[in-house]
Structure formats: structure tokens, C-alpha cells
Amino acid sequence: MKIESTRLAQAVTLRHRCGFYSAQRHLISQVDPIMAAALARDTTVALAVDPQTAETVIDTFGGSEQLVRLSEPGPGCHSGQTLAARRARELRELVRDRGPVVMIGQHRSELDGADGSFWTELDAAFGVALADVPVELTCFYPELPLHQAVLDGARQTHPELLVGGVPVTNAEHQCPRTVLAEYPAPNPDLLGAPDLQIECGAWQLNEMRHTVEQALIGVGYGRSRAEDIVLAVNEVATNAVEYGSQDARVHLWLDGDGTTEGAVCEVHDHGTLHDPLPGLAAPHSSDPRGRGVWIARQICESLHVWSDSSGTHVRLHAGRPV
Amino acid sequence: MTRTVEDMSSFGSSVTHACAVAVSDEHLWELSSSFIEDGITAGDHVLYFDDGTSDRVLERLLDDGLDLGGLRDAGQLEVVPAEATRAALRSPIDMFCQLLTATVDSALEGGFSGVRWTGRFNYGPTPGNGHTQREYEAALDSTIRGRPARVLCLYDRAHFPDDVIEAMRTAHRVEIGTTTIYDDNLLRVTATAQGSARLAGEVDYSNRAQVRKLLASELDTALRSPAAPREIRLDVSSLRFVDVAGAVGFVHSAEEFPSSHRLVLDGVRPRVARVLDRCGAPFAAQLITHAHGERHAAALPVEVRV
Fold first, then answer.
1. Contacts across the A-B interface (CB distance below 8 Å)
2. Beta carbons within 10 angstroms of residue B179's beta carbon
3. Cβ contact, residue pair B245, A238, below 8 Å
4. pTM (two decimals)
5. How far does B271 lie from chain A, in Å, by closest CA?
6. Closest approach of chain B CAs to the CA of A238, in angstroms?
7. Are residues A91 and A130 in contact, defined by beta-carbon separation less than 8 angstroms?
8. pLDDT (tens digit, 0 to 9) for every residue of chain B, 306 residues total?
9. How far apart (Å, rounded) are the C-alpha atoms in residues B240 and B59?
């Protein structure tokens, strides 16, 4: 897979920093001043923290309208890039309605996965997906997490560190794509034999679309939803046959991934992944290319890209609309 | 046999029986629907002999704005099921002719001005029924001579080998020809007037470059000719899919037009409209889109005659 458009469409407006805490009380002591300062200047604060922290903060500052809790990651959240894309949608909406936002994030060990690389992927993806969003994002990590990779990644993905309550430049910071070259996005869990397997080249994309659409409608997807999912799969498969290898393999599971309901589709090719975070940045309107995967991310609940020695792989999860 | 190539409008005058060779499925549905629409307009009783593709022909008629529910209620358009078509064409030739005569008589008694038949009549020349395709065609000619009946026999290269198609062509005095700008069996592009074209099928990675070429060519023609319209119009009512790069191509093409010209997409289906919206079409001042409407959603199936 190759994504041609990796340049940023607008100036970077994200301020992304990281703080460390030894215990819950230490965390709250760092969060409170940020909250107080933001609310004093009538700025909306978005919380992506664990329930205990959220309750403590709300007890302290009351049920202010300026305090917004972002959506819970949910049990099927294994993809940092997907959570970053979702946060970007939520924050863009907040910014549109309320202006610049302060966001506070917190490490949650249940999302660590096998080695904690979820958090490196998430923070690297924040650096791309939120680059043009006026957000002051502070991510808090425990000083002693279960996986050392959590701290190693955090020290490289944040341009600023919070030291004694003051943001300072982080000398270890690297650009997100460089970090992910060192800590690649993790492989998701294997799903077993798919319900459908389709091999397609550039001139069989229409047959693939037809097969996937009929399968989705056959298990109860509405026509519009099925058509949109087919568009998402088509865009990923088009990238695969255009940049990856002559043929792409499309696998479809119609009954969820064991954790969440809805169809799961994977597209595999033998190509090299040039951009580890495709489709996260909103493309500039004048760019002729680079929009397909971004639109696919808007359509699907989850879109996770990873690569290994066999090529590039994309898993899309697309449930029925509630 | 001397054979002439005419266009579809010839059925309105001298031609009563002709063949047409479709190069793609889209072409087949275009020929079928064009012949049927002309018959509907003329007040004929129209029979489409189904071979399993009637859904796509009816969809094409809906694209063209026909009121299938009204035609069904009036009994003007009938889809003859494949089994009935097969049985008629495999019957002895004298019975076949009696059936044709009875159909014309029945239509006239019903107040119609005439009869039109079309479909892929590929069941006749089968081994064992004792007649050749040429004999069927000759019998059909003599049966409808002097009667208000029009027959278009359709053959397509996807289902018939070249030698069979050549044999069919030589069995007909008239062949209907059409002008095609581009046809790859996934997307078909035809010119509809100066500065306008119709796209039918799907635009994806395999053919989207052709659409950009078409738009560039149409714009070039329009700019060089003072009499050419300032709107490049594309009828996309039969365009069933466009990928993101294809949709971006429409948007960027329109944005590259000089301020004096606009790109107008007529009959945009909801599926295509959603992709265009995601690709910035609402913000392109020189791109005008007209929605397809709710014709498909409200469509009623045409009754079939068993």
C-alpha cells in the first residue's frame, strides 16, 4: 500500500504533552490545575480517563457544561490508530461548536494488549490525526506500567513533557511515522476461517464489490449501509492492487470478531507499507489522491493497518448503524 | 442477403424487423430500453422476452424516467418469462407464426396501435426442432409483413460466439447500429448531444482515467466552438458506482473549468451522491448535481405473463 498524500494540509495546532504519575492522588494533583485553568478561561475540557479519575474530577469541578467525557474505548478497541481517528472526529465536532479544547487522556492498562504498543500507536496517530485541530492534549501515564514499551513510546511521541506542572520541550520526541517505524502497529488477533475469500486484481474489483455487497445484504445490512461499507472495502482493495501487488486477497467475516458484532473484512497484499498511518489526516481538497482510506475510516467503526514480512494488511470492522 | 445498418429511429418508419449486436451488458440494456421506450411512446403493446436480465432492463427504464407502475396498470409493457419464451421459440414454425399473429390481433383489440417484441431470442436454433434460425427469421418476416409489428432481435458477444453472431446478422436485412464513445463492459459512455454524454455502469480504478479523458475532450470541444453549450452535461442516472478517486475526478474537473463553463451531473443516484458529497462536491461552485429522485425506491415490478 502506498499513500501519496502524507503532507499536512494546515499548520500544526495540536499541543501534545505527556505527564507521569506515581499514584491516583499524584495524577489528580496534576490534572486539577489544568482543569481549573481551562474552565477559568471558559475552555471546554474533554476527558478520556478511567471512570475513577472522571468521578473525582467531576466531584471537584461539578457538572459544568464545559466538561465533556469522550466515548469509552469499548471492549473491541485493539487499534490505537482507530481510537485516534475516533477521538479526532469527536474533537473536531467539539472544536466546531465550542472553539479550542483542552483534552486530558489517561493510560488504561486494559488496552495494553500483548506488549503495550497500543499506546505508542495511539499517541503517534494523535500526532497525525489531530495535527490541525486546536487541542491542548495532555496524556498521563503511570511511572511504572506493566509494559516498559508504554513509557518508551510515550517519551518519543510527545513533543512536550509536563515537569512539575510546567510543559517543557521533550528532547526525545520524534515524528510519528519515525516512531512507528521502530514500534510498528501490532497485528490484531487471528479470526479463524473467513466466511468469504476473494482474490481480485484491478480488473475484478467490480466482482469483489458485488460479492461483498450481496453478502452484507444477505445478513441483514440495510442497502445504504452495505453500499458505504463496499465503498470502504473498495478503496482499501484499490490501494492494494494499485500500490501493493497485482492481486489482493479480501477476507470477509459476517458475524463479528468474537468481541464485537458486525462484519469484519481484511484486505491483504504483498506490498510494502510506505505510510504506517494512512488515512488519518484529512486530505486537502486540492489533493487528487489520498482520500480513499480517510473516507473508509469515516465509514467503518475500526480500520487497522499493519504490515509484516508477508506484506500489508488492513482490517475493517463495520457494524450496522444503531 | 443485402443488409443495411440503421439507427433505432428507423423502427418509426420503414423498418419492422432488425437485429442488433451488443458489445456489453450495458449496451444490451441500452438497446432494449431504447426500443421499448419508443414503443411505449408510439402506443404499442410491448413484450420483452426475458432471459434472466429483465431486472436490469427495467432498472434502465426507471433510469430513463418511465412510470413502470402506470405501464403495468395499463398492460402496455409485459415481461415474458424465460420459460414461455423458450417454449414459443422451440415450437414448430407454423405454431410460432400463429402465436405471433394472435399476439398482434390481441394487441389491436386491446386498443394498442401495434406490437413490439424484443429480447435475446437464443432458443430457436436448437438441434432437434428441425428448423434453422434463418427459417424462423423468414417466417417472422412474412407473418408481420403489412401488420403493425416491430421486432428487434438482440445478440450479445458475451453469450454468442462470433460465428453464430455473424450467422444471425446475415439472417436479418437490417442491423441497428449505435455510436459508442467508450465501452469496457463495466462502463459504457455514449454521446447524447453536443457537449453531453451518458455514463452507464461503474467507475473504478480500471476505467476512471477514461472518464477524465472524456471530460477533458468535451471541455476542449466546448471551448473551441462558439456554438457549443457552456454546460458539459453528463447523464449519470445509470451510473451505479463511482469510487473515491472517480468522484474526486468529477470535482476537480469541474474546478478546472474556466469560469464560463460548468459541469452538470444529471440523475445522480443516492449511492453516487454520497461519494460525491464526501469528496467535496457541495463546495465546488462549477459542479452542479441533480439528484436521481425517488424513482427506484417507488418502483413497482411489471407483471410477467406466464
1. 53
2. 7
3. yes
4. 0.88
5. 7
6. 7
7. yes
8. 556 888 888 887 878 999 999 999 999 999 999 999 999 999 999 999 888 888 999 999 999 989 888 888 889 999 988 888 778 777 788 888 898 899 999 999 999 999 999 988 765 555 456 677 778 888 888 899 889 999 999 988 877 888 888 888 888 889 998 889 999 999 999 998 888 899 999 999 999 998 889 888 888 888 888 788 889 999 999 999 999 999 999 999 999 888 888 999 999 999 999 999 999 999 999 999 999 875 454 444 444 443
9. 11
